[in-house]
Design a protein that fits this description.
The complex is a heterodimer of chains A (about 450) and B (about 80). With about 450 residues, chain A is α/β, with parallel strands linked by helices. Chain A has 19 helices and 16 strands. Chain B has about 80 residues and is mainly alpha-helical. In chain B, about 85% of the residues lie in helices and about 0% in strands. The chains are: A alpha/beta (about 450), B mainly alpha (about 80).
Chain lengths: ~450, ~80
């Protein structure tokens, strides 16, 4: 089979990632291979791989990989690829701290990073891992941190949006792809914000200096030949680390869904039966990867993991619930294979970027062996007016086996949704739902949730 | 004029040296900020070093004074 170059791997011309026969390779030019070998001689690469902080690799002959390159590495495939615009605040923060810690560890071995792309950090469950071996290179004493601006735009500024203004970064980041520009954040700041010297330095002054450089080439020329002390370099990394570790989202009031798990509309008996249903469905599907749509704080993802799912990707649109889910998962060893991501199911991540192939959309990345959609369907079929059979189709396409909960119109949650609007949903009832599901899959089991009129369906289309 | 050319060619060489690995545009604004932070860090180090030297000198001066006074009072203390 032909080698296919990863469409997002084009920025650094000294190497690229490609796939062949389902295997993942990285081609390096002769100069990139020299740099990588120089780094490897320090022993830091092997230590990072052993610690799970850097994706593993093995050297393969270029002819075996079918490419014309000086040097080829083969990497294991990651369970899931996610993008910073899908990460909740706490996941982006974890990625930022990981990136800074990694850089400090590298600097201690005389090694640095050639960029600060957030896309080079991925997650194995809750644990971040670095994926770009090409951007690890020897440090030259006196050099500036060439990735500083990129770090600000791809990590710091998106976090500041939430910390200063209570604005989630996801929609803006998804639109901008390369992060939130320094100039745009600078334009939002109030005088009070500018009194913080860290904001003054990394946002206001950086923006001012950049504007001055755009007006005349003199500032850029004056920078040539200058050097940056190594202790100032590591000091800058530590300063950003301390700042980011201390950021708090400005929106701290409870949202509808962050308190949902503790205060939902049905009784504890129904809750226990639902957990039991999820556990038995997990045992039935034996999922390597389960998808939890509307995961909230991850209560049912935890059940799936304890019932044998090897990993769970949770999706929700509530930022606070997602932050709680991530922090709870980090605190619990049993939840280490859980990753909560932001998703507006009515508008999932598209194929986008260069030639609309650089960053793959939700559909290309989100498949699993089993899907859970608990108290989820009415958010699309009622709140977003999406046709019920299409919602069922979309869920069934995600995984061959799944559990879908149907919440009837007279349920308190749906009644709240309909409180101020006309009921135009004639086809929204359990029989229409069951018929739509039966058209796509075998209904293995259905079970009423105790003390509610909700029903759980286990489907199998294998 | 020659001097000017000499300066320019030095700048060009520096440009090559500093951008030898850079496929990423670091952004002039970021570099100027780093230069500023670097200068502040250097000043802080210089002040700290200067201050520690002053403390050392004061310490020595005091130490000498104390040594002198303890030498003067030596027999009394040493006798116990």
């Amino acid at each position: 089979m032909e080698a296919s170059r990863n469409p997002g791997s084009f920025r650094d011309p000294s190497g690229h990632v490609f796939e062949r026969d389902g295997r993942i390779f990285r081609a390096l030019s002769a100069s990139a291979a020299d740099r990588f070998n120089a780094v490897r001689a320090t022993g830091i690469v092997e230590r990072l791989v052993a610690d799970g902080k850097l994706v593993g690799y093995r050297e393969v002959a270029p002819a075996d990989a079918g490419v014309d390159a000086a040097h080829v590495l083969e990497h294991p495939r990651l369970d899931v690829i996610s993008y910073p615009y899908e990460w909740p605040f706490e996941v982006l923060r974890a990625a930022a701290l990981f990136h800074l810690d990694l850089h400090l560890t590298l600097m201690a071995s005389g090694v640095t990073l050639s960029d600060a792309s957030a896309y080079n950090v991925q997650f194995n469950g809750v644990t971040p891992i670095f994926i770009d071996h090409l951007s690890i290179r020897p440090y030259r004493p006196g050099e500036f941190w060439s990735g500083h601006r990129q770090f600000c735009e791809q990590f710091l500024n998106p976090l500041l949006l939430r910390a200063l203004f209570g604005l989630p970064h996801n929609a803006w980041y998804r639109g901008a792809l390369e992060g939130i520009p320094v100039a745009e954040v600078a334009g939002l700041l109030s005088l009070k914000h500018k009194l913080s010297w860290r904001i003054l330095a990394h946002v206001v002054l950086q923006d001012r200096f950049q504007r001055a450089a755009a007006r005349s080439e003199r500032p850029a020329r004056r920078m040539l030949g200058r050097s940056f002390r190594p202790d100032a370099f590591t000091g800058l990394l530590r300063l950003l680390r301390k700042w980011i570790a201390g950021l708090r989202p400005a929106d701290r009031g409870p949202t509808t869904w962050s308190g949902y798990a503790g205060a939902n509309t049905y009784a504890a008996a129904g809750e226990a039966a639902k957990k039991e249903f999820i556990a038995s469905a997990t045992a039935y599907a034996c999922p390597r990867r389960a998808i939890d749509l509307g995961c909230n704080t991850g209560v049912y993802s935890a059940i799936a993991l304890s019932a044998g799912a090897r990993s769970v990707i949770g999706y929700d649109f509530d930022h606070q619930a997602l932050d709680q889910a991530y922090l709870a998962a980090v605190a619990s060893p049993a939840m280490s294979a859980f990753l909560p991501l932001h998703l507006d199911a009515g508008n999932p991540s598209p194929d986008q970027g260069w030639r609309q192939r650089e960053r793959a959309g939700f559909a290309a990345r989100a498949g699993g062996d089993c899907v859970f959609a608990l108290a989820f369907v009415h958010h699309l079929a009622i709140a977003r007016n999406l046709p019920l059979p299409e919602v069922v189709d979309w869920i069934v396409d995600i995984a061959p086996v799944g559990v879908v909960e149907f919440v009837p119109k007279d349920d308190a949650t749906v009644q709240t949704m309909l409180a101020l609007r006309e009921d135009i949903f004639d086809g929204y009832d359990e029989s229409h739902f069951a018929a739509a599901l039966a058209r796509r899959a075998r209904i293995v089991r259905r079970s009423a949730v105790t003390q509610t009129r909700r029903t759980l369906f286990l489907y199998d289309r294998r | 004029m020659l001097a000017r050319i000499g300066v320019d060619s030095r700048l060009v060489l520096d440009l090559y040296a500093s951008l030898a690995f850079a496929y990423l545009d670091p952004g002039t604004g970021s570099l100027i900020l780093q230069a500023l932070l670097g200068a502040i860090a250097a000043a802080a180090v210089a002040i700290t070093t200067f201050w520690s030297k002053i403390k050392l000198v004061i310490g020595r001066f005091r130490g000498r004074g104390q040594a002198r006074s303890s030498a003067a009072g030596g027999p009394e203390h040493g006798g116990e």
